Amino acid sequence: MTTAQEDLLPTTRRALLHRIAVAQAEGRTPSLVAAVVRDGRVVWHGSRTSVDGHGPDENVQYRIGSITKTFTAVLVLRLRDEGLLALGDRLEKHLPGTAAGESTIVELLAHTSGLAAETPGSWWERTPGSLRPELSDVLGEQPFLHPSGRRFHYSNPGYTLLGALVEKLRGASWEDVLRREVLEPLGLKRTSTRPQAPHAGGWAVHPWADVMLPEPLEDLGRMAPAGQLWSTTGDLAKFAAFLIKGDDRVLRADSLREMRTPAAPAEAADVASGYAYCLGLEIRHQEGRSLIGHTGSLPGFLAYLTASVEDDLAAIVLTNCTSGPLLFTVAADLVRIVAEAEPRIPEPWRPMTEADAVPLELAGQWYWGTHAFALRLTVDGLLSLEPLSGKGRRSRFRANGDGSWTGLEGYYAGELLTAVRRPDGTVDHLDLGSFVFTRQPYDEGAAVPGGVDPDGWRGTGRV
Questions:
Q1: CA 103, CA 89: separation in Å to the nearest integer?
Q2: Which of 262, 316, 362, 446 could form an S-S bond across to 438 if both were Cys, CB 3.0 to 4.6 Å?
Q3: How would you write 34-45 as a 3-class SS string?
Q4: Which residues contact 383 (CB under 8 A, 6 or more apart)?
Q5: For residue 331, which of 293, 278, 298, 282 has the smallest C-alpha distance?
Q6: How far apart are CA 34 and CA 22, in angstroms?
Q7: Handedness of CA 409, 412, 416, 417 (dihedral sign)
């Protein structure tokens, strides 16, 4: 993915460079490399390093840790889209014989299975994967710490199970499936399970002295689907563009929207901070902006990928230190700098192309009781229901081809919207999951549940 530095103004580029320079200096990391993606293309790339000479570019590999989980989640959603599994299936149905067979696939994806966060025994991130050759070694004798489905509890072993599920249903290794179904179609030639030159070395920086210690670079074995991958800002830029818009060769846009939807109950502190976990993706709210992505860390490395779908902007930040700058804040700032300095120019308004097929009789103002709503027809063929006050339930609806519409998000997700007609074919009211929407508040001429008082509307003098 070519970096088009000229796409950004000099003042914007300087602000981006300043932000990563502060992060590298104050975070005391040997090197830091970053990229910004807009409209599917890299528009800025920068790096800072403690080594004199050439800094790392978009082709230098860093270990990306748990960003690997997002790749694994994509593989699982592909299996679902092909009809090979349902997200509500118990793991035992497809991968029998584990101690976690009662967990559902969606619980594993969303970290709500109740499984422990780590493996038993030695610290798996700093020891050879050969110490844990079987799933039983990853899970241990007591794999569950919490009741299934009740709380968000991040679990690395959970994603090891998902990797094993992929292997079972594909009849090939997780690594081979990942390469064939995701890396090659998206052109991620510098993403691999083992480091390929040029790559950064992993370092621990002493907390009280400006000295460093090399970290071991272990092969994680069975734990690979939870954190094995190495990648570059160039490759992760392509992956970020895919997470925003989808690619039918890998995963459809609607499946990616599902991945970006919160799926785990949040702790009170997470609610307050605007954090939620989805399906292999995190969502965070920062200064009024919704950001999806994932963090990554392994001894010697920190990584973060974040994206604002609304702004069509993404940022990637990679470092080679065990602890250092808070990369989510850095990445979020890179997105904010570009979004505020050079806001996205919207596409030109264009009319619908098949006006004769548009159900214009449904468009306009409707009332649910006394609550006023607007129903609009959009160029993408959807219906959009919004409260006129700006506050309240809203949703878009997809046509089903039989005159009904299905809600896509919010309170009305999955609910059916139908136009109920009179004998002469005109619309009497809209039925939305049993809620009646009429053209006037409690329209006496429509089939309002419970009827309408025959004396009609009145002032205080008639109470």
A1: 8
A2: 446
A3: EEEEECCEEEEE
A4: 362, 375, 376, 377, 396, 397, 399, 405, 417
A5: 293
A6: 13
A7: negative
Taking only the tens place, the pLDDT of each residue in 219-234 is 999 999 999 999 999 9
CA torsion sign, 55 to 60 to 63 to 67? positive
Task: Please list the residues that pair with 364 across neighbouring strands.
Answer: 375
Quickly count: other Cβ atoms within 10 Å of residue 283's Cβ: 18
The CA-CA-CA angle for residues 130, 132, 133, to 5°, reads 70
Q: Which residue has the tokens 């969502």?
A: 283
- Residues across the chain: 463
- Residue holding tokens 């109920």? 420
Does residue 71 contact residue 303 with C-beta atoms inside 8 Å? no
| CA nearest to 275, candidates 294, 297, 254 | 294
pLDDT digits (tens, 9 = 90+) for 227-275: 999 999 999 999 999 999 999 999 999 999 999 999 998 888 888 888 9
228, 164, 222, 167: which is closest to 194 by C-alpha?
228
Closest listed residue to residue 331, CA positions, set 23, 69, 2: 23
Amino acid at site 214: P
Q: How confident is the model at residue 381 (pLDDT cuts 50, 70, 90)?
A: confident
Q: Which helix (H) or strand (E) holds 375?
A: strand 371-377
For residue 239, give both structure tokens: 């992956």
- How far, CA to CA in Å, does 313 sit from each of 240, 241, 261, 291? 9, 8, 18, 10
Closest CA to 121 of 140, 135, 100: 140
How far from the centroid of its chain's Cα atoms is residue 38's Cα?
Answer: 17
If pLDDT is split at 50, 70 and 90, which confidence band does 392 have?
confident
Distance CA 244, CA 255 (A): 11
Place of tokens 């830029």: 237
pLDDT digits over 40-83, tens only? 999 999 999 998 777 899 999 999 999 999 999 999 999 999 99
Residue 148 is encoded by which pair of tokens? Answer: 């299934």
Amino acid present at 453: D
What Å distances lie between residue 95 and 73, 99, 164, CA to CA? Answer: 16, 11, 8
Helix, strand, coil percentages in the chain from 3-state DSSP, rounded to 5: 30, 25, 45
Element (H, E) at 236: helix 233-245
For tokens 């052109």, the residue is 187
Buried b (16+ CB within 10 A) or exposed e, 1-10: bebeeebbee
